[in-house]
């Protein structure tokens, strides 16, 4: 199992989005975009239906891994992007947001991994996997708000240290301190 990382640079996020649109599909682009903006685990993300995002102001799910209820706001910009996607793809309220081309279910975790990996390879972005979406959300959220306790709560982690390691912050801090450490 490879060690996946968050995408730390905004220009790399843009490269990834362009790569998904060029080499994969609009569905795959939206999976990435929604994933880095709401921070769900891939299993929970893939099970989202159109109505889960477009009805009401919050998404309410029972997380697969923890069996806990999670409720979180969908910001207006993301909701607008999802509406555009739903119209373009002609999706109905009950349909999965990321429908498989085979059958009525959503794409699989394996398929999600393949498309993310392909787009990352084409964009020359290393260490990308399905967990990259959630890790990127966490990393960017921390960079914007600098509140590890809040992020720990959002990600349902049991302690701040796990959250720091998860988003790659511990490694970043070690690298930064060692860069200027010479006697």
Can you tell me about this structure?
The protein is mainly alpha-helical. It has a domain of 121 residues: hpI Integrase, Chain A (Orthogonal Bundle), CATH 1.10.443. 58% of the residues lie in helices and 5% in strands. It contains ten helices and two strands. Strands 1-2 form a two-stranded antiparallel ribbon. The chain is globular, with a radius of gyration of 17 Å. InterPro entries: DNA_brk_join_enz, Integrase-like_cat_sf, Integrase_catalytic, Tyrosine_recombinase_XerCD. Keywords: DNA recombination.
Low-confidence stretches: none
Q: Biggest sheet, in brief? A: 2 strands, antiparallel
What is the fold-level CATH name, i.e. the topology of the domain at 10-130? hpI Integrase, Chain A
- CATH class of the domain at 10-130 reads Mainly Alpha
Query: Pairing-aware structural class of the strands and helices?
Result: mainly alpha
End-to-end separation: 38 Å
- By DSSP (H or I, 4+ residues per run), the number of helices equals 10
Percentage of β-strand residues = 5-15%
Following the backbone from N to C, one meets helices and strands in this order, namely HHHHEEHHHHHH
In the CATH classification, which architecture of the domain at 10-130 applies?
Answer: Orthogonal Bundle
DSSP, total strands = 2
Radius of gyration: 17 Å
Task: Name the helicity range.
Answer: 55-70%
The overall average pLDDT, rounded, is: 95
Based on CA inertia axes, which overall geometry fits? globular
In quaternary terms, these chains amount to single chain
For the largest beta sheet, what order do the strands appear in spatially? 1-2
CATH homologous superfamily caption of the domain at 10-130: Intergrase catalytic core
GO molecular function: DNA binding
Protein name: Integrase
Keywords: DNA recombination
GO biological process, one term: DNA integration
């Amino acid at each position: 199992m490879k060690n996946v990382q968050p995408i730390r640079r905004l220009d790399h996020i843009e490269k990834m989005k362009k790569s998904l649109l060029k080499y994969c599909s609009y569905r795959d682009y939206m999976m990435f975009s929604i994933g880095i903006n709401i921070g769900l685990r891939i299993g929970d993300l893939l099970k989202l239906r159109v109505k889960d995002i477009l009805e009401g102001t919050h998404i309410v799910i029972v997380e697969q891994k923890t069996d806990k209820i999670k409720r979180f706001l969908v910001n207006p910009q993301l909701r607008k992007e999802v509406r555009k996607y739903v119209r373009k793809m002609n999706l109905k309220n009950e349909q999965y947001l990321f429908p498989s081309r085979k059958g009525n279910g959503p794409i699989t975790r394996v398929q999600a991994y393949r498309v993310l990996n392909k787009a990352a390879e084409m964009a020359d972005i290393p260490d990308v996997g399905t967990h990259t979406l959630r890790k990127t959300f966490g990393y960017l959220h921390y960079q914007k708000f600098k509140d590890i306790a809040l992020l720990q709560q959002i990600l349902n982690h049991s302690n701040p240290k796990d959250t720091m390691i998860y988003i790659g912050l511990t490694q970043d801090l070690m690298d930064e301190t060692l860069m200027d450490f010479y006697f």
